[in-house]
Amino acid sequence: MGWVIFSVLFWFAAWALNGWLSTSVWAATRVVRLMVPAIFGITILVVWEGLVRGLQVPGVILPPPSVIGATIAEKVPVLWEDFVQTFVKGALSGYAMGCGAAFLIAIGIDRSAFLQRGLLPVSSFIAALPIIGTAPIMVMWFGFDWHSKAAVVVVMVFFPMLVNTVQGLAGTDAMQRDLMRTYGASYWQTLVKLRLPAAMPFIFNGLKIATTLALIGAIVAEFFGSPIRGMGFRISTEVGRLGLDMVWAEITVAAIAGSAFYGIVALIEKGVTFWHPSQRRGR
To answer: Are 82 and 214 members of one domain?
Structure first.
């Protein structure tokens, strides 16, 4: 019972500290903006540990964070091999191919009214296909290695990237386009010097959405056929063996990798779209 009481007291203390930091005179500083989510995350881990130990929850239902951390430290080689197979080979390659294809097709759609009327409905139809239906088909087509996982990722990231890019290219107003025509600019000059820069916030929005979809797609695809490595393979195998500590270790690695991937794309966006009001407000 002592663990439960400690968890409750720690929660209220951390809540009070975060509330004070959020309303203090230092609330706008970078240090406090980093401290608040860090304290919140540590609080969740401490409360999780305390409640699991205090209520004596079996490890096959929910292991405490300390056990998950020990498993990560012990299984680093296995986790790294799974990470390379799923994230580097499957998710990243599919992300690059899917987003790149969507970007090029979006330019084609912007250039052609026929493609705009034909491809957009087809792409929305493809986006509506359930992953549990397309993943086995991709495995049959491309085999059990990372190629089929990359194909699933391509299908998942294609539509968000396409829609955001098309919307961004249509974002410039008529006065700006008329000004470029007054200067005698061609379509491609207008595209490169006006419309693509203006579309960058939309493009990066699609890229950020695709970061999470890519990892989810690669992991889920491995449930339907994979070599003896990969995050999805390991999760499905360890669930059957009731190795929940290893399952949570894989989930932790996936969460960290996905968050880092999203953060890298957001950091690149900040450098590319420094002129946008949303970026200037954050300074």
So the answer is: yes
